[in-house]
Automatic annotation (TrEMBL):
Gene encoding the protein: LOC102604754
Bilayer-crossing regions: none
Signal peptide stretch: none
An annotated Gene Ontology molecular function: mRNA 3'-UTR binding
Lineage: Eukaryota, Viridiplantae, Streptophyta, Embryophyta, Tracheophyta
Positions of the Peptide chain release factor domain: 150-261
InterPro entries per the UniProt record, alphabetical: PCRF (IPR005139), Pep_chain_release_fac_I (IPR000352), Pep_chain_release_fac_I_sf (IPR045853)
Entry similarity comment: Belongs to the prokaryotic/mitochondrial release factor family.
Taxonomic superkingdom: Eukaryota
Protein name: Peptide chain release factor
Annotated organism of origin: Solanum tuberosum (Potato)
A cellular component term, taken from the record's GO annotations: chloroplast stroma
Pfam assignment, any one: PCRF
BP terms from Gene Ontology: chloroplast organization; regulation of mRNA stability
Alphabetical list of SUPFAM superfamilies matching this protein: Release factor (SSF75620)
Length: 431
């Protein structure tokens, strides 16, 4: 790879490379000249050999991209493995202790004495056991990735092994991220499911198209969590977008993860197919708890409710629609997804209670009479995120300051950076 020139006072070095890591010869040549003198001091000679070694390293890393990529990938894997080695053992120790404590609690009393408490304890025990299994699997994957990295070090061109290890490490660290976030979900209703509503703004068809994009974004996010999002109500626009949609996510912690999504989501500078001009759009998103185990614990005076019933024609059939308005606050909910008026009323009433509970918590009040209705709209109608399509693709979260340049990934459901930033920001907030 390196040639000594005939001139005793200089060294001419050449390096060649090709696209194949097994064959380093090709027509491409890089030439460098390092001069050395016969009467040079021993330190100068040492410097000469050092320069020659640096050149050989340069030719390996720059002229052979595979080797450079291997070094970079190994460094990433080492960083990810280090994080897993630091966090996983502590987390596993904590979860195993929690499981043992739950087992001890269950052994100390008769499960039939308090069925409700027994069910709660059994659920917590199952969660602890599940967390222990997940963390053990995580630790195994990290050890496997570390071993692959060490084996790959014996064969610097085995790039596929490193990619396999890197994929495993990314999966491990995503699991750790999710575990860490779950430990921060300590506010009331964080462990409940979520009911997400998306309503297009007043910008016409562009906002309706934007509402449809946001609907797909949340559905894809749920799928990435291993769950399904169920559309329970939907009002399509005549031009192909969505005027209004309600999505139910019936899995634990969905509300805790998505509560920070509430607000106005703006689309800036999007060009949609047949439209030549770049347009803006907006959609209002609201998120309320979807109580999975029991009904919301809140009593509402029937005299404070205004209930109206109508019938909607959809796909050739008529279905009942029920709307409930809480007169003192002006909050309004509806239900159209059930077959009977009674079922719609029950569902709408639960949604209203969930809304009121969130408002009470946000305003720091303990009863319905203390709710300040004038403050409700201002807290729910703030722009919280901008999705910029042109000139540069960018997603900017106003509340947390997080910015992402991969707009496509975000619209495909990769909203974890925003979720994580919101959950972390709550540490510094006083309830």
């Amino acid at each position: 790879m390196a040639k000594m020139a005939a001139d005793p006072f200089s060294v001419r070095t050449e390096a060649t490379c090709s696209s194949s890591p097994l064959n380093l010869r090709s027509s491409k040549t890089a030439t460098f000249r390092i001069r050395a003198h016969n009467n040079q001091h021993i330190d100068d000679k040492n410097r000469f050999y050092k320069e020659l070694g640096l050149f050989l390293l340069f030719s390996a890393c720059v002229l052979v991209p595979e080797i450079s990529s291997t070094f970079a990938l190994k460094r990433k894997i080492e960083d990810l493995v280090l994080r897993a080695e630091m966090l996983a053992p502590t987390a596993l120790e904590f979860e195993e202790a929690r499981r043992l404590k739950q087992e001890e609690i269950i052994r100390e009393y008769d499960l039939w004495d308090d069925v409700a408490k027994s069910n709660e304890d059994l659920v917590q025990l199952a969660e602890s056991a599940k967390a222990v299994d997940a963390l053990k699997d995580l630790r195994y994957k990290a050890e496997e990735a570390k071993l692959i990295t060490e084996l790959a070090g014996m064969d610097s061109i085995n790039y596929d092994f490193l990619k396999q290890a890197y994929t495993a490490c990314v999966s491990v660290n995503k699991t750790l991220d999710k575990y860490e976030m779950s430990k921060l979900l300590r506010e009331p209703y964080d462990m409940e499911g979520a009911c997400v509503t998306i309503e297009s703004g007043n910008e016409g068809i562009y906002s309706q198209i934007w509402a449809e994009k946001l609907t797909r974004m949340y559905i894809k996010w749920a799928e990435k969590q291993g769950h399904k999002a169920r559309i329970v109500e939907k009002q399509d626009s005549e031009s192909g977008g969505i005027k209004y949609v309600m999505i139910e996510l019936e899995f634990k912690s969905a509300y805790g993860y998505l509560s920070g999504e509430r607000g106005i989501h703006c689309m800036n500078g999007s060009s949609e197919g047949k439209f030549d001009l770049l347009k803006d759009g907006a959609a209002a998103i609201n998120v309320i708890p979807l109580f999975l185990e029991s009904s919301p614990d809140l009593q509402i005076d029937e005299n404070d409710l205004e209930i109206t019933t109508s019938y909607e024609e959809e796909q050739g059939r008529t279905s009942p629609s029920l709307t409930i308005q809480h007169i003192p606050t002006g909050l309004q909910v509806r239900s159209t997804g059930e077959r009977s008026r009674f079922a719609n009323k029950l569902k709408a009433l639960n949604r209203l209670k969930a809304k009121l509970l969130i408002v009470m918590r946000e305003q720091g009040v303990s009863n319905l009479a203390s709710i300040r209705s004038s403050d409700i709209s201002s807290s729910w109608n703030q722009v919280i995120r901008r999705y910029v399509f042109h000139p540069n693709k960018l997603v900017e979260d106003m509340k947390t300051g997080v910015q992402l340049s991969d707009l496509t990934a975000v619209l495909n459901g990769n909203i974890e950076p925003f979720i994580g930033a919101h959950i972390n920001s709550r540490r510094h907030e006083i309830p």
